[in-house]
Each structure stands twice: as C-alpha cells, then as structure tokens.
User: Fold SET domain-containing protein from Cladocopium goreaui.
Amino acid sequence: MAAACLCSREPCNRPPSTMEQEPMCSTTMRQRIAMHFNLFIRTSKANGSCAAKKLWSSTSPRCLRICKQQRLNFDSRVSPSKTENFLATASCSSDSQRSQRSERKRLGKALVATRPLAAGDVVLVDKPFLVVSNPDSLERWVNRWDCYFEMMKLAQGGKPELLEAFEAMDDGGPEVVASLSTAALDTLQLMWRSAGSQALLVPEAKKEKDKLKVAGGFARWQTNQHEFPALAARPRRAMYWLAPKVAHSCDPNVGWEDPAEDGMVELRALRDIAPQEVLGVNYMDADFLLLSRKVRQERLLAERKFHCVCDRCLEKSLDEIPVVVDPAIPSASPSPRDFKCGSSATFLPFLRSLQDHLRAGKIEACLAALKILQLDASSGDDLIQLAEALGRELQGDASSDAFNSLD
Assistant:
C-alpha cells in the first residue's frame, strides 16, 4: 500500500526514502530560518491562537515526514475527540478493544486493560504521525520548529487536526519546559541573526514569551518522542499519539517491541493483566529496574522530570524495611534450616510475600530480602530454586542436598 501524506490526503507513490531528503546546506538553512522568522513575527492572536498571515511558498520541509493515520476504535465507554479519531492508530489484532483511556487520580490520564490479557498478547499497535531527523547539532531543534511551522501551514489551509493533536500532547510539565529553554533560545537566536535588523523590532518581553513557546514545543517532542528506524544512517525521532499515554512503571506489565521499518510498534503484555489494571511500561533501560527505589526516583527526576507513582515505588520495598536486631538473638547468620517448625509460623507470610514479588517479576526486591536473611542468590533462576527449596522446607520434605547447593 502506498504511503500517504496528511497534507494532501492523497496516496503518495514516492518510496519512503524520498520523503526525507539529505540535510540542507548552510545557505538553504539560513534562507529557511529567515523565512521562518518572517512568518514568526507576522503572526496574529486571533481567536486566542497564533495564526500565520503569510504562508510558505516553498515545498514541505525536508526534515518532515507525515504519516497517514487510521481511526482509533476505542471502547464504547470512551468518547474520543475528533483529533483522536483522525490521528490515533491503536487498532488491535482482535475485534474487542483491549485498552481504553481512563482518569486515575494518581496518574492523571492512563491506559487500562478492558479485558483479561495473557503474557505475550498484543495490547495495541501504534503508528507515528510525525517523524523528524535527529542530528547531534542545533539542527535537531531547528527541524522540530520547522515541523511546527508546517503544521501551522496545514492549519491555515483548513486542516488543523495535526496542529491540534500536537498542541494536545503532554509537555511534561514546567520543569521539562524550563530544561529546554536554552535550546529554544539558541534556535531563536539563529533565527534572529538570520533576520538581521528585523530582530531589533521585537521587544524583549516578546522574545521571552517566544522562547517559552518554542521550549513548550520542544518539550512536547522530548516527552512523547520515540526512536525511529534510521534513514541513510541518519537518526530519526517519531511522535506517536497513543504510545506516550502508557504510564511509566518500575514494575511494568507491558513492553514495546522494536519499531518496524514503517515505525509501527506493538505493545505486548509481559505477564497476565487483569481488567481495569493500569498499563505500565519501563521508560528507561532494562538495568534501571534493578536499582533501588531511591536511585530510580533520582534518575527519573533528573532525566525525565517526574516522580514515579507506580505501586512498586509507593510500597516500601523489602530493601528499605529496617531490620530490627534483638540483642538477645545470637549474631550468627541464619541458614534455611533454622526456619522450621515453630519459626515457620512467622516466616511463612514472608515467604508468601517473596513468592508474590517473584511472580510479579520484582527480582530486585526478592534479592534484597535474601540479603536480609543472608541467603545467596545471584540471578532470577537461583531465586526460583531458592524459593522452591524454602517452600519444601516449610512443608518438612526438603532434602539437605537441596539447601547445600544453595548455601
């Protein structure tokens, strides 16, 4: 099937590789920036929005690729907006919708399961509606602002859906916007230098307001973008409509598959998921989940500008429960053989908690619990063997060999 551009609403027979050309030369970029600046200072605030009085006479930006979107078939209890209907592509592999948006007091808007899901099930499929090249230079930010002006052009032509969808995306909050103010200022200064004397006509208060607006646009990209398959060894980033709405979780129940060549991504269940359970995915690398709660929160705040409120972070992890030492108890390290008969009545709830954490994939918490007991397990497989051995020990049928191999 041929690709399609939202700007024309007609099939585009060009191969995908031709929809993003080589980077612009410096002269062309200066001309484009000057044109942007002319458009930027000729905007009005009619109806409370920034509308350009002058449209581009050039072709579509070379950094931009706009993909056709299909209608999102949400659960009947959800009434998606016109923008969602137009842009989102969360078509599932079955007739029944597997997820829906929900208002959760702790998370705000989140996606929840509408029916039971088994590990490995496809929860939803999403497709990007904006793609930009992402070089390691100021050009990456110019590309994003270039993209914004193309959306303004479409809005002026009577097709505001794309701009409305972009503006509706979460910007991550004031801290994220503030963190990108330097990039916004650098981009604007590049425009001002290219515009020459015209920049002198802009009041300082207007420049500050413009900086915040540009930073807000960059923040929407930074908060919602995902990696996209590179083109001619050039990295790219894509804006998805539904994918960013899956909340972060340090105890994820879903995970994203790597995007296909066309950017299509699948969200799959990592374990069984109950109806109305919030969908959570790990925003960070896999090793992040092995860190302590304190370190995880610090990294998320520094790199993502938010506090995680998943169940794992709200509950006191086993590695954070203080160990109370009774001076009357010998300081010798306990062994699994010590947890028998009378002591099993107090240890059994702990073991059940350990098994619950194990089933939920909370390997870090289980290993921390074993450190409290000074038992040895270096991996998930060792942990499973140890939990099974502890279970047999409490039932009184464990062999000494089973524990000798784990001591």
Summary: The chain has a mean pLDDT of 62. The radius of gyration is 27 Å.
